[in-house]
Amino acid sequence: MADATTWHRDLSVDQQLALHTSATRLAEEFTGIYGSETIERFLYTSYDQFASRSTVSNFLPLLAERFARQRLQALARVEGHHRDGKPVVLFLCTHNAGRSQMALGFFQHLAGDRAVAWSGGSEPETEINPSAVAAMAERGIDITGEYPKPWTDEIVRAADVVVTMGCGDACPIFPGTRYEDWDLDDPAGRDLEAVRPIRDELERRVRHLLVEMGVPAR
């Protein structure tokens, strides 16, 4: 297998240094679980996921590190290296810019550290829908720290519940995983007033999901 330097000869010196620093941090976090080859592979393939559709490269190493960390955490759950007993929910939609991000925001806000939630899209946008950000801010929930991203097999396999919202046949199916499909309007291109009912319905469904999972809401 080629090393990371061979894979990315076209990266600037600053990008290479940033990714090297990210790989070092991840190696420290996953010491005794995954070696440097696995960590670099996840980091650089995560980088490629964002580089292929981004017009701004400054934050790519940071996004790649965050996504690689999530993927490695998911893989550790799948392979039995991480057993904290917390249920995992994955929210999926087409662009990971509106519905799945709002659902994630509500879930994290209501569940706190009693459960884990992730989100992803089949065709991720480059940024979160501003109307979705504004709608959630009205509820005191800040989702500006999130970012649209794809899903990967290990992330889907690590989830106990996968909630799909409009990704159709593109949504991944794995045996033994609980799936729910939430039929909700896509907030893409809608103003704040039009997004509010979608937000409110998402909150209702997330609260109901938490009750079903036995996770007390804050």
UniProtKB/TrEMBL annotation:
Q: Name one GO biological process term.
A: response to arsenic-containing substance
Under the heading InterPro entries, the entry gives: Phosphatase-like_N, Ptyr_pPase, Ptyr_pPase_sf
Q: Per its UniProt record, what Pfam families does this chain match?
A: LMWPc, Phosphatase-like_N
Phosphotyrosine protein phosphatase I domain: from which residue to which, for each copy?
Answer: 87-212
Coiled-coil stretches noted in the UniProt entry, renumbered to this chain: none
Keyword hit for Transcription regulation:
no
Q: Which UniProt keywords apply?
A: Arsenical resistance
Q: Which PANTHER family match?
A: ARSENATE REDUCTASE (PTHR43428:SF1)
What name goes with this protein? Putative arsenate reductase ArsC
Give the lineage: Bacteria, Bacillati, Actinomycetota, Actinomycetes, Micromonosporales
